[in-house]
Amino acid sequence: MKCCVVTLGCQMNQSDSERIRSVIEGMGYEMTSVEEEATLIGVVACSVRQKAIDKVYSKIQKWNQWKNKKPLVTFVSGCILPADEKKFLKLFDLVFRMNELPELPDMLHQCGVATEFSAMHPLNDLHREDERTDFWQVDPTYSSEFEAFVPIQNGCDKFCSYCAVPYTRGREVSRASDDILAEVKKLVERDVKAITLLGQNVNSYGLDKKGEEISFAELLRKVGELGQRSGKDFWLYFTSPHPRDMTRDVIEAIADYDCLAKQIHLPVQSGDEKLLRRMNRNHSIEDYLKIVDDIRELLPTATIFTDIIVGFSGETDEQLENSAALMERVKFNMAYIAKYSPRVGARSARWEDDISPQVKSERLARLSDVLKRTSLAHNEAMVGKVYRVLIDGRDRRVDGALTGRTEGKLPVRVLDGSEDRVGTICDVEITSVAELSLTGRIRQVR
């Protein structure tokens, strides 16, 4: 029996998929990446962007056609809006939410799926203190031997006007810090090199359990102390924080421990005050720049990434230029720039999508040009210097080359090195650069 799980969307969905795979493997299934081989096939969906949800409809249309030729059971989970969930119920054999993951074997059995699921399966021993977070107690089947995602928080209380996440994942819930630290400890002992703490608003960790849980800064310090005691060489990242909850003590914690990576992903979404209010971001440009100044002061080597939306409802040319000015001021190392698209369920879906596709593309190109220029200036200063790089695979474009990322998550093409260095941290001398990437040669393996 073979099962294929297709993952769409963000790193949180990838983490969810790793737990779904654990449950399915516990039922006696062999996992495959080839859809045609599977008799059980599912998708971890993303309702945040229309393109991602369109892929789900395309997949299920194809899979349902296969049912005419072979036995096949389909399922869907993940980040799903109520409107999409209602439609999926008519298309998939099974629709379940992540909080229902421990019941997946029973649900599949009711769908007629033959399994080797045993009464001794560890899922039967899960505690039911909070039915929304039971799935965190499922040990994931990690998709990499040297990189791992650890969820620490789920849901969102911010209600940005363009975002559907509060309606797909619900309100913020923090995972128990003891469980988080136990999972991180296991990964460190396995010699995992890059660990990422995940949450929709990761730095709001603990705010829903004041007096019961530690703060996000305290959680980082505990991981930092764990790293010091272990003597292991690894980097810990987190994504995505919200500027409203990004406090100086978080940055101070990162500065105090070598294993806490000097890389900050801080979504701004717009450089215009009026547009930020329309987006319901609840932070000002002044607030954002204060955080950036704190990062530059306490973490002088840190890279800064961001997210920006262009073509949001009502955005003017002047407001777009304010975003460009902010990018010039901050000099981001990377910016994930997206053209706005309304999502049913989000508040802005009720507003006119009044920016044409052509103008959205032009505005994306405008901000991309700024990013390329500021990123290149930063990268040029790296030439001739040696940086630690986590080698993560073969380069598909250059024979004999490898790919990797610096501690600051800047992509590097490594021109020399054998494949046995994949999954190791090496010292790499940067020999040349491009706008958004680096090239170098290995100097030492750690």
UniProtKB/TrEMBL annotation:
Stretches assigned to the TRAM domain: 380-444
Residue ranges annotated for the MTTase N-terminal domain, each copy included: 1-113
Domain Radical SAM core: 142-377
PANTHER family: CDK5 REGULATORY SUBUNIT-ASSOCIATED PROTEIN 1, MITOCHONDRIAL TRNA METHYLTHIOTRANSFERASE CDK5RAP1
A GO MF term: 4 iron, 4 sulfur cluster binding
Record has Metal-binding as a keyword: yes
Residues spanning the membrane: none
NCBIfam families named among the record's database cross-references: miaB-methiolase (TIGR01574), MiaB/RimO family radical SAM methylthiotransferase (TIGR00089)
One Gene Ontology term, aspect cellular component: cytosol
Organism lineage string: Bacteria, Pseudomonadati, Kiritimatiellota, Kiritimatiellia, Kiritimatiellales
Keyword 4Fe-4S assigned: yes
Name of the protein in question: tRNA-2-methylthio-N(6)-dimethylallyladenosine synthase
Cofactors demanded by this protein: [4Fe-4S] cluster
Signal peptide range in chain numbering: none
CDD domains: Radical_SAM (cd01335)
UniProt organism field: Pontiella desulfatans
Enzyme Commission no: 2.8.4.3
Keywords: 4Fe-4S, Cytoplasm, Iron, Iron-sulfur, Metal-binding, S-adenosyl-L-methionine, Transferase
